[in-house]
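Thread: quick sanity check before group meeting

JM: Hey all, I'm pulling together slides for Thursday and realized we never actually wrote out the predicted structure for the chain we discussed last week. Dropping the sequence here so it's in one place. If anyone has concerns about the input, flag it before I start.
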Amino acid sequence: MDIIKNLPYLKQELYENGYSRQMELTFPDCGPDKKARVSTLLSWMAVFGGFDYDARGLTHEVLWQRREVFLLSRAVINMHKRPMDRDILNVITCEDSVKGAHMRRVYRMEYPDGTRAVSAKSDWILADPISRKILRPSSFTGRELSPCPIEIDCPEPGKIRFPARDDDINNNINHLGERVVRWSDLDGNGHVFSGNYADFVWDCLPDDLRERDVVLFAINYSREAVLGERLRLRGAFADDGNGHDYIIRGDGPDGMCFLCEIKFKS
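JM (edit): ok, ran it. Output follows.
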């Protein structure tokens, strides 16, 4: 077979405290508007931590044998210029030390000309995959976590609060239906993959909100959802009442699974 021309390869680089890889958004990564799904960007946040550690020899198998795995606790995505189908992004991720019980990881996604697309931050919990016991960050045997050396233009992940229960009586809370956890929602750990929760959210959003531009997405994870569970979804506008800030809560049979907040463009 004759080569017509050499095509550019999507590059990747490993740093002392960081990892970068070029990524191309493809048709299934985007929604009907051909803009990147929030679930795609949230999924990249999870897999890039794996890319980074794989390059350092700290694969999932190695960490599992050491009985150390990471569970995503909180994440925030700041959308500067929402990527679209066939866009190529330079994605860099860095660890960013420890805060309390959380091990922090941050992300910057840029177009090849340096224009910012997305900035994101995340908090992770270290856990024993066998006993499910939460471990102290100081017990991590993989490497010492240091501060991120680059600027990340994104708010810190924080605790999201859903409106008080009595607002439900006053019809300020929307009942958005149920979502049954299917086999295709699961990852290799046997529970819903962290990125898939954003698809749960967009599937239940009221039509007038689903079509609006997103400027910020934040999510708190509380409990793993597993096969066959029914998640009850409710939504409400935030207390500021400007109609641009919507909160969704997903409850399973044993309590809250996730809570997310979406800020829409005014």
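AS: nice. The mean pLDDT is 91. The chain has two domains: 12-139, 166-264.
JM: adding both to the slides.
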